[in-house]
Design a protein that fits this description.
heterodimer; A: about 250 residues; alpha/beta; Rossmann fold; 2 domains; six-stranded mixed sheet; three-stranded antiparallel sheet; globular; B: about 280 residues; mainly alpha; MetI-like fold
Chain lengths: ~250, ~280
């Protein structure tokens, strides 16, 4: 693994019984880079994420996250990575602020310090005032914001976003993506995003990897800020990615 | 929701919109719940009045030792209330201590069943065998095994109530949403932290459910146990009343037991409400 690469996957294969889920995959994510893994349902995106997070063991190949084998050295990565999932996965018996401080408490931070940091993060995701609300009192967008704050509050080196914006309506999703991007850039987080929405990738990624079943990189594209500001270039990239995903290009308006 | 409303949402904090929407809904749910509560109390009162009338009518056609009138039972209850409160307290303390011990032991066994797959089949076998042994067998066994009446009663209630807690808590652990387990695991917690932050808060609802389910049963069992194994307590006094042909006292004690059950149910319901205040109240139309 090079010093620059915070995540490195080399020739990884994963099977479930006779089903080949990941076929000889190689990829890397540099420190501070935002990479999006794109693919249709069944392309193996979530399996790749589970392998990188260390919750699944590969059959062959090598994975290094911040210099550690994430499966064999599971605990060594405590506090160095965090995940925001497709659904908010908030604990219903905890208030918003208590949910945000969960990761900090698990890391052994004193309760008062954890509470202060959690409140700061809730304010950062524009939820100040909702601290003491229970999960059922929050809207879908607010819950997802709490989930993001929980993932970011532990100040991880790497943030994984597993379809975090895909269940939200268009406007809320767009606002949340913009807020997340601002935070990720400000704190120079290394991010790996999993999504099936091309627009998410075009808006957020430094680099997009399109996976085709069984989790092979079918296309790799770099997306510069320059390209992002050029509608013609964006439309081209959109069409290119859609073709690699095996579908038609349908940009969000 | 219209696009105009959505666009407006982005320019204001979402909190205010959600709060505005939630407040009237919460009010409606609370009002409906209140109405249901009043309806329950009214129905209970109707049933009690019907029973008292039936008792009064029957008492006029049969001898006193078969069915005394409600007034006779009320007088007996007043007499017992002032002369025998000690026995009520003894039964209550026995009940509270027994339920607590059974709860702690049952929860620990249920947690062990849920968290340690290697011991699960053995614990499960013990609990399942325990559920198959009749309460009467345990009572007779307790008389042989223990000399002290208190030990007998605690033992009987422990072995009878423990399986309810163990099995329900085990089901609670099994019912943990995998999504929440994956979420907490992503922070790489210790086993103790998983227990503290995820499993224990999740099973609180199951513990309350079990307690509410077993209270009536526990009262019956403690009375039986006192009847068989003790000289003090409501069960022992009912035994005495029966042997002296005082059916008015038997019914008075029964009346106390029903009241005791209602009070304990209300107490547990109150505790549950405080402990599970995070739960959304859902009402079906």
């Amino acid at each position: 693994m090079t010093e620059e690469n915070l995540i490195e996957v080399r020739d990884v294969t994963k099977t479930f019984g006779t089903y080949l889920a990941v076929d000889n995959l190689s990829m890397s994510v540099r420190r501070g880079e935002i990479v999006v893994l794109l693919g249709q349902t069944g392309a193996g995106k979530s399996t790749v994420l589970n392998l990188i997070m260390g919750t699944t063991c590969p059959n062959s190949g090598q994975i290094r996250v911040a210099g550690f084998d994430p499966y064999a050295s599971f605990k060594a990565l405590k506090g160095r990575l965090s995940v925001s999932f497709q659904t908010d996965r908030l604990l219903p018996w905890r208030t918003a602020v208590e949910n945000v401080e969960l990761g900090l408490l698990i890391l052994g931070k004193p309760r008062s310090q954890a509470r202060t940091r959690a409140r700061e993060w809730l304010a950062r995701v524009r939820l100040d005032g909702a601290d003491d609300k229970y999960v059922h009192e929050l809207s879908g967008g607010m819950r997802q914001r709490v989930s993001l704050a929980r993932a970011l509050a532990i100040d991880p080196e790497i943030v994984f976003l597993d379809e975090s914006f895909s269940q939200l309506d268009h406007v809320t999703s767009k606002t949340l993506r913009r807020d997340f991007l601002q935070i990720a850039r400000e704190f120079q987080k290394t991010c790996l995003l999993i999504t099936h929405r091309i627009d998410d990738a075009l808006e957020m990624a430094d680099r997009a990897l399109v996976l085709s079943p069984p989790a092979k990189v079918a296309l790799e594209v770099r997306i510069s800020d320059e390209a992002r500001s050029d509608p013609r270039k964006i439309a081209e990239l959109h069409a290119q990615i859609a073709a690699a995903m095996g579908g038609e290009s349908q940009a969000e308006h | 929701m219209s696009i105009a409303v959505e666009a407006d949402r982005t320019s204001r904090p979402e909190r205010s919109v959600a709060a505005e929407l939630a407040e009237p809904l919460t009010g409606v749910a609370a009002a409906r719940k209140n109405l249901e509560g009043h309806r329950d109390i009214f129905a209970t009162c109707v049933v009690v009045v019907v029973l008292l009338v039936a008792m009064e009518i029957t008492s006029r056609f049969v001898p006193d030792y078969i069915m005394p009138s409600p007034v006779t039972v009320w007088n007996a209850a007043r007499e017992l209330f002032f002369s025998d409160p000690y026995h009520v307290v003894v039964t209550l303390v026995r009940l509270a201590i027994s339920v607590m011990i059974a709860m702690v032991a049952g929860v620990l066994i249920g947690l062990a069943m849920g968290m340690f797959p290697s011991v699960r089949p053995y614990l499960k076998a013990i609990v399942v065998i325990d559920t198959g042994i009749p309460a009467l067998s345990w009572m007779l066994i307790a008389v042989f095994w223990f000399k002290n009446p208190e030990s007998r009663i605690f033992f009987i209630l422990l072995v009878i109530l423990l399986p309810f807690y163990a099995l329900n808590v085990y089901e609670g652990v099994r019912a943990l949403p995998k999504e929440l387990v994956d979420m907490i695991e992503s922070f790489r917690p210790s086993r103790w932290q998983v227990l503290r932050y995820l499993i224990l808060p999740h099973i609180v609802a199951y513990i309350f459910l079990t307690t509410k389910s077993v209270i009536g049963y526990a009262i019956r069992m403690v009375i039986f146990a006192e009847l068989v194994a003790s000289a003090v307590g409501i069960g022992a006094r009912m035994n005495l009343a029966q042997s002296t042909f005082r059916i008015d006292q038997v019914l008075a004690w029964t009346f106390f037991l029903v009241i005791l059950n209602l009070l304990l149910q209300a107490f547990v319901n109150g505790l549950e409400k405080i402990s599970l205040k995070w739960r959304a109240e859902a009402t079906v139309r």
